[in-house]
Amino acid sequence: MISVIIPTLDEELLLPACLAALAGQTAHELIVADGGSADATLAIAAAAGARIVSSERGRAEQLNRGAAAARGEVLVFVHADTCLPGDLLSRIGHLLADDPRIVGGCCTLRFDDSATRYRLMAALGNAYLRLTHAQYGDRAMFVRCATFAAVGGFRPLPIMDDADLGRRLRRAGRTVLLSGPVTTSAREFKRQGAVRLVAKLAIAHVAFWLGVEPERIHRFYYSHGDEATVTGERDRGAAQVIADAQRGR
Asked: Cβ contacts of residue 225 below 8 Å, gap of 6+?
């Protein structure tokens, strides 16, 4: 059995397309882990036959709650702004059934906008994953339920919780990058500006791999965006964040 888990928070606009893409697939269980939506998200999920799990707000917490409620041997984590190709869940099931060495992985990605800059960003991101074997949540991460439990699930990090889980999965066994591609919304790139968001993401990832504490990365990431209510180190800048990591702070 495959359990698909979707974290939501006020996703009434994009959730219908996500659920429609899953409607004809081989998922035996569909779980929406909601963090307190105030719009029509829950009604949309219920109409699609999803089991709704309530959670405190926070992606890692929501995904862990969903996983705890799941009955499947395989967990597939799908963001509400992501649509899966029609045969993807079947391919994931066959892949894991055929090779017990594989513990999980994620998929290649494309954006829902065909502009050249988005095609280029998707291609570069896919190449990066092929090179590093990293896994990220917007790419339909999948994992054996037993492995997910063995590595401790998602840690309650404010950012990079998906990359952190992917790193632990690679220590537990073989992971793969499965050809999708899944189609993910480019809404954040449009809202913040593609160049600005790519720069923020690159700095956050470099800082994470250098060992910067996720709380510090979170403060940097959101102090340079819309959620600028954070205080403290918001003006220290990217160079200082990475310099701290190099000094082991």
From this structure: 192, 200
